[in-house]
Amino acid sequence: MMNFDFTPVVRGSYKRFLMLPACIGLVMVIALQVLGHPEAALSLFRGFVVGLLDTVILVRGMKKALPYVKDPQRGLAIMKRHRWYRVLSASSIIILLLRQGANVAGVCMGLLLIHIFLLFNLTIIAYQLNKEGEREERREK
């Protein structure tokens, strides 16, 4: 199992962390629009926006919990609070879309896809960080 420190990505600019899933989602929305499915493109776009909002809340919680490395219970409490922020924001947006009569299945599909793209991006970042760690170990020897 690979071990890597995700702290530099969270502390620094996490644009690298969000840009790949956002770009893939935008390409999918544009492709659906060009193929003549504007309703599906709109609902998928809404799902991507909700997914990116969810990811931003997640990373924000991680960033707030970082100073409490010495007190993990406090950091865990911050992360649990941000978990509820994520649940409340996504569920309230979906309920609002249901009241408006929007295609919520497409929104949920977009939310799911953006998280799948995020996992792929995390795998890529973990691989890169692992390779950088191996290079530094070789230099030290």
Q: What does this molecule look like?
A:
Helices cover 84% and strands 0% of the residues. The protein has 141 residues and is mainly alpha-helical. Helix 2 packs antiparallel against helix 3 (38-65), helix 2 packs antiparallel against helix 5 (104-140) and helix 3 (38-65) runs antiparallel to helix 4 (72-100). It is flat. The protein starts with 6 loop residues before the first helix and ends with a helix. The mean pLDDT is 84.
Helix content: over 70%
Class computed from helices, strands and strand pairing: mainly alpha
Q: Which strand-content bin applies to the residues?
A: under 5%
Name the average pLDDT: 84
Q: What profile does the largest beta sheet have?
A: none
SSE arrangement, N to C: HHHHH
How many E strands? 0
Extract low-pLDDT stretches. Answer: none
Give Rg in angstroms: 18 Å
* Gross geometry: flat
Count of separate DSSP helical elements: 5
The separation of the N and C termini measures 23 Å
**Oligomer state of the chains in this structure:** single chain
- How many domains? 1
Properties at a glance:
mainly alpha, single chain, 5 helices, 141 residues
Summarize, please.
The protein has helices spanning about 5-10, 15-35, 40-65, 70-100, 105-140.
Note the topology.
Blueprint (H helix, E strand, L loop, with lengths): L6 H5 L3 H20 L3 H28 L6 H29 L3 H37 L1
Helix pairs in contact: 2-3, 2-5, 3-4, 3-5
